[in-house]
Request: fold
Amino acid sequence: MNRNVLISGASIAGPALAHWLGRHGFRPTVVELAPSLRQGGQAVDFRGETHLTVLERMGLIPELRRIQTGGSPVRFVDELGRTLLHLPAEFTGGEIEVLRGDLARVLYEHSLPYTEYIFGDSITSLAETSSGVRVGFQRGASRDFDLVIGADGLHSNVRRLAFGPEENYVSHLGYYAATWQLPNDLGLGKGSIGYNVPGRFASVGADHRNPAQAGAFFVFAAPELSYDRRDPEQQKRLIDHAFSGLGWEVPRLLGTLHQAPDLYFDSISRADVDTWSTGRVCLVGDAACGATIGGMGTGTAVVAAYVLAGELARAQGDHRVAFTRYESRLRKYARGCQAGGDRTGKFLAPGTAAGIRFRNTVLSRLLFLNGMLRLGEKVSSTVALPDYPAGPSRVSR
Ligand SMILES: Cc1cc2nc3c(=O)[nH]c(=O)nc-3n(C[C@H](O)[C@H](O)[C@H](O)COP(=O)(O)OP(=O)(O)OC[C@H]3O[C@@H](n4cnc5c(N)ncnc54)[C@H](O)[C@@H]3O)c2cc1C
Reply:
């Protein structure tokens, strides 16, 4: 029986999977490249029955309700701060919205009783043997595991090692996104304020729990850029360049970028992998079917972790059966959710002044907003969720 499972990545999919594997009697180990749990990122949301059912079965709803943001309405303004469009909290925040860093911490805590965590390391080689996988690490000694799961995001290391180069699987959707924390010197209240010029969106909102802090969220259109994903200073220069010369509060916000310790910067891209597993290696979350922003990646990752662990338990660890069932249950669902991400960049930062005016006019109609909301809930609930009997949750604090 395949009990020892190595998971690469400790953000959302990794800890969620470790939690479920632990409750089904497996022994998960999670290796994370960062030296500790990564903070940062904006709010992420859960919407529709399927997401909430999984969170409920994980025993997370009361805690997430305690720390939820309550949704983040966005007011789009012109150069002088006059309102052009108001997106209500339900539209942006789903049924439960939490900061990504808070969610990662809660999932981590709920997986700790069952999981060995290794921070500051990364897999360098995967060699399948007749009974398992011999795994080489950048820093630690080689170890043997029964199965290896890539939960290491859109730029997955496991996918590169086991399936091939990233360019075969990830398509750039023409935009980049950045988030960082800054002092709330603008006197911001609830919600965010956003400003557009063609191909650019700059926004800022107060932190719901610490009003002295705020979060910036910038999106810009650009062809694929060549940069070092591990060099935040280089990424800051790219953002600075993309927004230089813009009005409104942009210069003030850019002025805080250089001190930001928690920059999140990535392309808006999607991952499409023909088959989510090869031999004893399988992918979950953004590594398999990510869509950066707007594709319900967080909800899909949590649902996929639940199904993958459940199918492994149901098949008594037989990965061939479990990986096939996991994928056949979820592939169509994940595709449907992912499609929302294809529109995010164009929605936030339309390429022309006419495009911005059109968005502001059409979206100010409540009927349209309600329709979009219902569509999101429907898409995120189109999968039949089996009940996989599992042991009780044991949270450690
Ligand atoms: C710091 C951060 C901020 C984010 N901010 C936002 C945001 O503002 N808006 C949004 O929509 N989405 C954001 N995301 C992405 C969002 O979390 C995912 O789209 C979604 O939740 C699915 O999560 P995931 O666990 O599959 O992937 P991710 O959340 O991308 O997590 C992947 C994890 O794998 C780790 N990792 C990467 N390479 C290796 C390696 N070689 N070895 C070991 N571990 C590795 C990463 O450090 C990370 O912890 C952010 C992700 C991170 C890590």
